Structure formats: structure tokens, C-alpha cells
Amino acid sequence: MKNFDIKIDEGSRVPKYQQVANRIYSLIYIEEISNGDKLPSINELSERLYLSRDTIEKAYNWLRKKGVVMAEPSKGYYVNKKKVLHQVGKILYLVNKVSPYKLEVFKTMQEALNKDYDIEFRLFFNDVHIFMDQLGTSFENYDYVVVIPLFHVPKKEHYGLPKQILERIENIPREKLIVLEKKIPDLKENYSCIYQDFEKDINLALTQAINEIKRYGKINLIYPKSYFHSYPIEVKQGFITFCKKNDLAFEVFDVSSLDSCFSAGQAYVVISENDFLEVMIRVKSKKYALGLDIGVISYNDTPIKKLFNVSVLSTDFKKMGELAARCVSERKIIQYKNDFSFIKRSSI
């Protein structure tokens, strides 16, 4: 009989029987427990975890209904691993907003995992309360939970991680948690994470474009302040660090100031998709030649930017999706800083 580890979170809203069942199910799935292995008796597990017999029996009954555990009279409970392997897995993909990049990650995961997993796409619109409602204890019903932990912090211009969100995410078993885009420094234990280092990434990527940028008298960052389009503060910090390091004239402003700050001879780094469209509208209305009269670098690559030959600072979202899929298909924990680079086109 294997001495596998089960920890009970006393502060969790997840019932204790469900915590026991979830952990055993996860151990079976990642092959820490093998087909045919005998599980501890109800009495033994009750004593080991300091839980009532009723709690352990309820957990075992839940596993029996799932078909992953068999009970043999007078012998005990045994793993039916074949039942786990033959089921179509379920993945929750919980993201802060819809964007071409998040859809690319989603599509890449779908293609990589083929028919082995159903992936459910949910949104929480940067909102703490919607996230809490969307996730709740529903992670119990999924084999993996993919989360992009970006939230709007009231009265601030950037994303943060509220305390209640950290506490909720901590309840998710590490072997089924996959975090994308931003690491969670306060999250205990090891977990899968394919992330960006927003401050260093923009600094280094702009450095790749330094010769092009120096052709202009000033470089501007159009940094969103609105609730639905705010970005990590590290992006702004990295931009400022780059400009000071290279002794460049610079300014940071919201799109609401664009008309008064938009003129020939300057370069613009544009973060949000909506702001990018506003910039392109003004380029056209003023009849500026992109890459000559004015320079534009957009954040995150999309087909429309390729079509208009716009230079971008972008991570590789396809690779992010592929690595997330590997966490699932290979049942392993992966931590990887995703690639980020300057892609030169004719707009700068």
C-alpha cells in the first residue's frame, strides 16, 4: 500500500470529503497511484487525516461513482486506472478578457490536445467578483485549470492580484493548475507557469529597435488607464527604464491625450488594440507616411498588424499554448519564461 500524501486545507470552502477525493483522483491521474493499487482503509485514512469515518467514506463513494475506484467486499478499495484513462478530460480556460492572443493560446491548446480534452472558455473581465463566481469550487470538476491572473485594482492604473484571489487559487491542487502570462510570487509550492517578464521584456525588445527609435525626436508610450484596457504596471516601468538608459526624450499618456500629443517626427508605442486603431485613424487623417513622418510600434502581434506592416513587440502566443498543452499531455509541471521580441516592419 502506497503512503501517498493528502493535505486538508482547514480554511477552504471545499468540503473536506471533496478535498480528499480530489487529491486521490489527481494522484491516480498523474500515476502516483497505479491501476490495481489498494487504497488505505476507511479507518486508516480517517486516523491518518484526523477526519471522521463518514468523511472518508463519502470521499470513496464519490470516487466509486466516478468509476475510478472499485470496492471489493472484505478486501477494500482498489484503483480502476483504466476508467480514468478512457475518459475525455476537462480543462477550464479562465481568462481576463477576449483578445486575439488569448484565442490563439486557446486554439493552439485545442489543436495540440485534439479529442483527448474538452476545453471550456470562460471570462472574468478583469473583475475579482466575476472571477470568484466563475471559479468557485468548480475546479473540482476539471482535470486542469488554466488561469491568466490579471485583475483590475480599484483606484490604480494597472493589474494586481487581490488577496482573495490568491487564497482561491491556492485551493487548486498544484498538479492541475496552469498559470499563463504572469507569475504569482506568493503562491506556495511548485506549479506550471508560462509567463512574461513584462518589465524586462519591453526594455530588451525596445533595445533591439534602438537604431530605428533614435531616428525620431521623441518616443511616447500610450498607456491605457480605462478599467477594461489597463495593463501591468511593469510595462510602463520597463518603458521608462529603457528611455532613461538611452537618454531619450519620452512621455507616457493615455489615449484621451492623443490629439494634443500626436505630431510628426515622433514615435509611438501603443499597448491596447483600441488605442492602436485610434493611432492608425489619425495617421490616415493627417496623411502621415508611416515609418517616415511618424513611427509606430504596437504591442502583441495580430494578422491586421502584419497586413499593415506594423512593427510589434510581442511574445510567442502559439508557443505559450503549446507549452500549456505539454503540461497536460505529459502530466508535468513546467515553468518557462516565454519568448518576447521586437519584430521589425516598415512602420518604424
TrEMBL record:
UniProt feature coiled coil, ranges: none
Domain HTH gntR-type: residue ranges: 14-82
Keywords: DNA-binding, Transcription, Transcription regulation
UniProt xrefs under PROSITE patterns: HTH_GNTR
One Pfam family hit: GntR
GO molecular function: DNA binding; DNA-binding transcription factor activity
Keyword GTP-binding belongs to the record: no
Domain of life: Bacteria
PANTHER family tied to this protein: GNTR-FAMILY TRANSCRIPTIONAL REGULATOR, HTH-TYPE TRANSCRIPTIONAL REPRESSOR YTRA
Record's protein name: Transcriptional regulator
